[in-house]
Amino acid sequence: MERRAENNQCPTAHKAPPAPYYAVIFSSTLSDNAEGYGAMAARMVELAREQEGFIDVESAARTSEGFGITVSYWRDLESIKKWKAQSEHAAAQKMGRDAFYRSYRLRIARVERECGFEQRGE
Amino acid sequence: MERRAENNQCPTAHKAPPAPYYAVIFSSTLSDNAEGYGAMAARMVELAREQEGFIDVESAARTSEGFGITVSYWRDLESIKKWKAQSEHAAAQKMGRDAFYRSYRLRIARVERECGFEQRGE
Known about the structure:
Number of strands of chain A: 5
Order of helices and strands of chain A: EEHEEHHE
Oligomer: homodimer
Helix content of chain A: 25-40%
Distance between the termini of chain A: 8 Å
Radius of gyration of chain A: 17 Å
């Protein structure tokens, strides 16, 4: 099986992405009783995709301790600010603090370098 | 149950963290046959913790499709560069490409704003 690196020779060098953009890194731990969280989270992903400046979103699964990471990618800080203030999203944020999250940490970071790898063929 | 926001009033405002630092956002999908990956990943976390400039690492669980996210945090780009070049880590990167990953994307991002939330008491 032959494999290759692509998108900026990940194994050997990092290069800047085509344009700078931002990542919102959201790490959270759910409360023991978080019924309804899944539906709300799915709705927020759907809604985020409709926002101006949205690029992509990635979510991993939760650990057995309820810890999960979602990273969304945005064109600029202004898009992130608008998404934070979007009314349905603002209500969901409050619901998250009132009912779903034991804790969370949110980081806004400017993506400066990026590379990727994909198996060839298969 | 009373809850509170802490660390920079997450619900209302974002502030810069105490000092700028960097996140390495590593999103990956494992191949169907990735035996031995777990042990290697655990060893890399252990090794990363020993490196100069290491701040923290967070990993969520893999989805049923084998997709996972690990974010590590570093003091500066120099620390990240040294970690990438660390010999045992370099061998693990090659092993990852040769045997474990179907695909991955690695982004290096400068954390500019941060906030957190924790349930009060309980």
